[in-house]
Amino acid sequence: MSAVLKACLAFRKHRTLLECPLKYSQEKDVLNDVSADKTVSQANVSSPETVVNTSDTIPVDLSGVTSKREIDLQDFVIPDAPLIPQKIYIPEEALTCSDLDIMWYMPTGETLKCSNLTSYLGWIFETLTYFHSFFPWWGSIMLLTVIARTLTFPIMVYSQRKTTALANIMPKMKEYQECLQESTKSGNHLDMVKYSNKLVKLYEDNNLTPKKIAMQNLVLPLTQLTVFYSIFRTLRKMAQYPMESMKEGGLLWFNNLTIMDPTFALHILTSLTIYGVAKMGIEFGNQTMVNSGMSKVLQYGLPPLVFLGSWWVGAPNAVFVYWLTSNVISMGQVVLITRPSVRKYLKLPPIAPLAAKKPAPLTWSSIKESAKERYDSFTVNNVADPRRQQRKLFDEAGIGPIKKTYKYNPTKTRSVSKQ
């Protein structure tokens, strides 16, 4: 019993040394005694049942015990790296907008309890999958494009109505603006008020204001940009997943809608249609930009920019099917609303013929001149609203300090000197 207890006490001392190196300084004396004699001695070890005499020494072999620094690293085995988890493929019938990572534009902000119909992009996804039950993917995308362009057509008519009204008064408005600029530079306040009132009356007769002009020029582009990006993101995520049925959902040379067209034919066709949209939109839709340097920038700058941008992001064929269809419909709508019978039915004002003018050459100076004209026009429009200026002066007079227009304070009595 005594020998076993002594061996256990010795092993406990050495295990404590290996597991807790910080206690080495506290047990240094005891460890030196044990290592020198290779013995372990205890004074008296007693228990309620047995009294052990520890006067005898028992040799203990410590050759197999090594310090922490002497452990051979070859004894340790590094486990293999875990395998990369495989992507779980979900059938197309069970896909949700969260699986495609199109949980964007959430009205409620909840992504855990939402269904496809609580996301704006989910509506597009559900509509496409519903159309796909009757048509191939290329037909479903084209049908969705036709519906989207039809729903935004009233906004296009509204923008065309305001743009045409502005284009019809543009010659007279430019005349007043030039006179107002000259009177402002010369400091002729009488002419400033005169031409400002003429501009205000011209705007009121045509139900236009500078703020309305700025807003109406942004309504149609912002609407089309929102619709385009929503459908673009949905189609791109569906192609990146990818949905197996879209790999054979195209036609002609772009049968696989999940990859980019290797021939770049769709890129070229889309760029050409964008050039047509820019040219026709400037000539028929926004006549205020005709013969300006900015129109040339849009016509010749957008197509190569679209080509390079779509190649850079790696847009799949499904996106180009939508983009190309949308551009063709846009050009058709522009041609349609230029017909007099259609304009009469839609209650659009007739387009006034523009004076024949040779287009300015596209140079850097012409672009700067066009930008300067637009800035000057914006500045003059702000100055041309005298009622806003009068209201501003009236408010400043009500809350600002009283201007001194007298030599003495009339509220205080003056002492009259006696002669």
From TrEMBL:
The keyword Transit peptide applies. The keyword Magnesium does not apply. It is a multi-pass membrane protein. GO terms for biological process: protein insertion into mitochondrial inner membrane from matrix. GO terms for cellular component: mitochondrial inner membrane. Keywords: Membrane, Mitochondrion, Mitochondrion inner membrane, Transit peptide, Transmembrane, Transmembrane helix. It comes from the Eukaryota. The chain crosses the membrane at residues 137-158, 213-232, 252-277, 297-314. Coiled coil: none annotated. Residues 137-338 form the Membrane insertase YidC/Oxa/ALB C-terminal domain. Pfam families: 60KD_IMP. GO terms for molecular function: membrane insertase activity. It is found in: Membrane; Mitochondrion inner membrane. InterPro entries: YidC/ALB3/OXA1/COX18 (IPR001708), YidC/Oxa/ALB_C (IPR028055). Belongs to the OXA1/ALB3/YidC family. This is Mitochondrial inner membrane protein OXA1L-like protein. It comes from Leptotrombidium deliense.
